[in-house]
Amino acid sequence: MNIRTISTKPFTDQKPGTSGLRKAVTVFQEPHYLENFVQSIFDSLEGYEGKTLVLGGDGRYYNRQAIQIILKMAAANGFGRVLVGRGGIMSTPAASCVIRKNQAFGGIILSASHNPGGPEGDFGIKYNVTNGGPAPEKVTEAIYARSQVIDAYKILEAPDLDLDDLGKFQLGSLAVEVIDSVEPYMQLMESLFDFDRIGELLSSAKFGMCMDSLHAVTGPYAHAILEQRLGAPAGTVLNGLPLEDFGGGHPDPNLVYAHDLVEILYGEKAPDFGAASDGDGDRNMILGRKFFVTPSDSLAVLTANAHLVPGYRQGLAGVARSMPTSGAVDRVAAKAGIDCYETPTGWKFFGNLLDAGKATLCGEESFGTGSNHVREKDGLWAILFWLNILAVRGESVEQILQSHWQSYGRNFYSRHDYEEVDAAPAKELMERLRKEAPDLKGKQFGNYQVEYSDDFSYTDPIDGSVSQKQGLRVGFSDGSRIVFRLSGTGTKGATLRVYLESYESDASKHNQDTQAALAPLIAIADEIAQIRTSTGREKPTVIT
Ligand code: G16
Predict the structure, then answer these.
(1) Are 361 and 385 in contact (CB under 8 A)?
(2) Of 136, 406, 443, 459, whose CB neighbour count within 10 A is largest?
């Protein structure tokens, strides 16, 4: 088998976003596009020769072709071994688990997460480092810098491998092992949660659950863990077969895109508990009967109830949340006397805190929750955490939230997304806000007075690295807050995200409708940012 060196030219658009490089499938299919980026990853690493790489993806269209290319490139570049998921499939949290368990050098995960798939959909690639987590900014910047000067890549000339059965192959000097990632992932879950009690709950006639895998990667994991291991009735997992186009759906677990599940949980004879996960299995949505738990509240509830779960019974070192995530968890941390860290959006920013033992649980408003068990957010983990709490407390999801709000007050929270707006006016809007931010301080909007207004900047407490321009914050004297950010994961135009939050300590007002409670802030956000005028949109495309 020959190693070929292929001449190439840089693509100018290979800058990784919030989570790796995401583009339309058609872009990745351009000659050399994927190869350039993979070679740029390898060229930015040092000391991987002879070491182990973990490889898998969420099964979306182009996953299979990309995996064959990457295997041949790993062989040509001198990796010693690749652990690849059966059929090329591995969820993001399972990949993190496999990297850590095998002390691999790193991993490549193929996913565009919650973005739609299929020939007209999106594809993505991200590199994870030895701790199992997403590459930190200094690594992604080095990959981008390399991609801008690359002139050649190396690939082995060899036939494609059959990855559909477990087995071992040799590709030149590279050992390839096709593995079942469900097994190690399930073992890890069993080490954290009380499987006996969850099993009793799931097999009880009094309790009903529905899990929607949205034809994405968690299907095999959810079937194996919830139905086969924990005894939930067959049929508990819906849409459990991973499909290349996610059955034509949008594999994003929120109230808009997981509408089938929402209809079941809000319908007649609704089950007690509903959950969904996304394309690559790292996001989760939690529902009770006719009840939606915001991801920010979910993080707060998990933190407040962690002592009920075996893996966290010994206490939490601290917690962390991304800046736009609500401050609900801050209140739990303050009461418990543990530290609460505020990071920019992007799971990669939690890595150092987790490695340094500063935080045990982390979460984001974007339907991501996780802990120090891996270095990615983890959808099924969050679902099992909730099941463990439900099994111990014997209360409904809604009762748990109501009593949580009684104890801590309620942070009303919502995110308004303006998807696929024109990039230029969206950038202008942010630039204008950036310029005007210092003048907003002290300004009065109705009953709200601006206490601070800035562009969030983060200094990592472990390595001192600084990340600037992470979102425009406008905070009011009553603790309410509006945050403006442009998404770093979209592939078409720009997506403006407006995050709205207000705090209510009065229990008699906890059951208001969220959008009604936030109505004054929604109006102020438009007044400050001129959203309708700048985007030409009368209302957001997605409200969560
Ligand atoms: C990724 C990141 C998350 C981030 C989310 C949204 O999630 O890992 O940390 O919160 O994107 O980012 P943005 O607001 O920039 O679109 P995922 O699940 O897409 O990998």
Answers:
(1) no
(2) 136
Separation of first and last alpha carbons in the chain: 52
Prediction pTM value: 0.95
User: Ligand 1 centroid vs 347 CA: distance in angstroms?
Assistant: 7
Which residue's CA lies nearest to atom 18 of ligand 1?
113
433, 524 contact by CB (below 8 A): no
Percent of the chain predicted with pLDDT > 90: 95
State the average pLDDT for the chain: 96
Amino acid at 503: Y
According to the model, what pLDDT value does residue 200 have?
A: 98
Length of the chain: 544
DSSP-derived letter for residue 246 is G
Q: What domains does the chain contain, in order, with CATH numbers?
A: 3-180 (3.40.120.10), 185-408 (3.40.120.10), 410-543 (3.30.310.50)
Our answer on whether the CB atom of 126 is closer than 6 Å to any ligand 1 atom is no
Q: Judge whether residue 488 has pLDDT over 90.
A: no
Ligand 1 pocket mutation pick from 489, 496, 498, 542 by most atoms within 8 angstroms of CB? 489
Answer yes or no: is pLDDT of 1 > 80: no
